[in-house]
Amino acid sequence: MGLRGLTDKVAVVVGGATGIGAATAARLAEERCRVVIGDVAVDAARQTAARIVAAGGTATHVAFDLSDIASVADLIASAATTYDG
Predict the structure, then answer these.
(1) Residue 3 in domain
(2) How do residues 3-52 score in pLDDT, each as one tens digit?
(3) Is residue 85 a part of any domain in this protein?
(4) Is residue 2 part of a domain?
(5) Is 17 exposed, middle or buried (0-12, 13-18, 19+ CB in 10 A)?
(6) Which side of the chain, N or C, has fewer Cβ within a 10 Å radius?
(7) Could you tell me if residue 33 is inside a domain?
(8) Phi/psi at 30 (nearest 5 deg)?
């Protein structure tokens, strides 16, 4: 079952490095979303983004810590800069 209207949308997945977050990021990429994975586990986020790209999707990762307000702003700014908008 496809998720309609997601092609070329930018999806920011907080906690997307592992588990349900990684599965969500992968599923969104399958629907042709451009995915930004934000997670405190930077190496795992990098690996998840690499798996998505290897499978033909579009993804990047950003170091993200929800307890740091500057990190929240950086995540959104990075998503906008990376995907023009």
Answers:
(1) no
(2) 678 899 999 999 999 999 999 999 999 999 999 999 999 999 999 999 99
(3) no
(4) no
(5) buried
(6) N
(7) yes
(8) -60, -30
Which DSSP string do the residues of 21-50 spell out, in sequence order? HHHHHHHHHHTT-EEEEEES-HHHHHHHHH
- Phi and psi at 39, nearest 5°, equal -160, 150
Whole-number Å distance between alpha carbons of 59 and 33 = 9
* Total-model pTM: 0.91
Structure tokens at 66: 């929800």
Distance CA 38, CA 69 (A): 13
43 lies in which domain range? 10-80
Domain count, the chain: 1
Alpha-carbon distances, residue 27 vs 3, 40, 46, 58, 70 (angstroms):
9, 21, 17, 12, 28
